[in-house]
Design a protein that fits this description.
The protein has 273 residues and is mainly beta. The protein has one domain. Helix content is 8%, strand content 44%. The chain contains four helices and nine strands. The strands form two sheets. Strands 1, 2, 3, 4, 7, 8 and 9 form a seven-stranded antiparallel sheet that branches. It has a two-stranded antiparallel ribbon with strand order 5-6. The longest helix is centred in the first third of the chain and has 9 residues.
Length: 273
């Protein structure tokens, strides 16, 4: 009799118990991107704008990806294909040097937009669910046309550069950012400055991301057994009744702490090799 199959690579000797039909998301199309985004305008908080106006120079800090919004629209002239409009929202932090005093940390919002075209297949059916609550807060479960769902996986970007620009040198393509969701503005703790007065910050970022289109589908898959956890749950710190001395007996003696290595980069006792 073959051994019990555990999650992970399947051996040839494993016995399939049954075939089941599951409802899941199937990836129809996907792409990866490595974007070098130059001179994104940073919209600072009000207190940060005061420090930026008095700053002699700025030093780049870090960039945090707060949120990514997506919008999927079918392409009328190419059936089965969709445009995916992606908007990245970043929190940019930097150090502003004002005279000889210690640098002041400033932060602000940066926004990056991009568009990709992916194949999402076709579907004309409408989706209904018993989880739908017509007068509820979640409108995502309302009946809708069966179109693919966009998923974006991204990491915090790399800060490639930061510029401090006088008002007279501002880019003519700059425009006031108005359609920022309130939940994004709330991440900064104070109002953001979207106007054109004062000095401005421009940041260059390196962004890695994966974008895919998924569809609800039913797949027939093999089943080996029920997935029952093998590991026992550990007790809470306040309810653990194990003898502390018994636990300590299983802790290995820290030899390396008492015998520094004779050769750089080599641990352990020299006499033991």
């Amino acid at each position: 009799m073959p051994e019990k199959v555990m999650p992970g690579p399947v051996q040839d000797a494993a016995c399939i118990r049954e075939a089941v039909c599951v409802h899941t998301k199937k990836i129809i199309d996907s792409c990866r991107d490595k974007d070098c985004v130059e001179d994104l305008r940073v919209y600072p908080t009000q207190s940060s704008q005061c420090a930026i106006d008095r700053a002699i120079c700025v030093k780049a800090g870090k960039a945090e990806l707060i949120y990514v919004s997506t919008d999927v629209e079918p392409i009328s002239f190419n059936r089965g294909f969709y445009t995916v409009d992606v908007r990245y929202f970043y929190r940019i932090t930097a150090d502003a040097f004002v005279g000889a005093a210690r640098p002041v940390e400033v932060c602000g919002l940066a926004v990056f937009d991009k568009r990709v075209i992916l194949f999402g297949s076709e579907g004309s059916s409408k989706t209904f669910s018993s989880e739908t609550v017509l007068d509820g807060l979640d409108i995502q479960n309302l009946p809708k046309v069966n179109q693919p769902t966009a998923v974006v996986e991204a990491v915090d970007p790399l800060v490639l550069g930061l510029k401090l620009v006088d008002p007279c040198e501002c880019r003519p393509c700059d425009c006031e950012l108005t359609d920022v969701p309130p939940c994004i503005c709330a991440c900064f703790g104070s109002d953001l400055c979207f106007g054109g007065e004062g000095k401005r910050l421009y940041v260059s970022l390196g962004q890695f991301s994966l974008i895919r289109l998924e569809r609800d589908t039913q797949l027939l898959i093999p089943v080996y057994d029920y997935c029952m956890p093998e590991k026992e749950c550990t007790c809470d710190s306040g309810h653990c009744e194990d003898d502390p001395c018994e636990i300590f007996r299983h802790v290995k003696f820290p030899v390396d702490e008492f015998f520094p290595p004779d050769v750089p980069g080599q641990g352990g006792c020299g006499c033991c090799g």
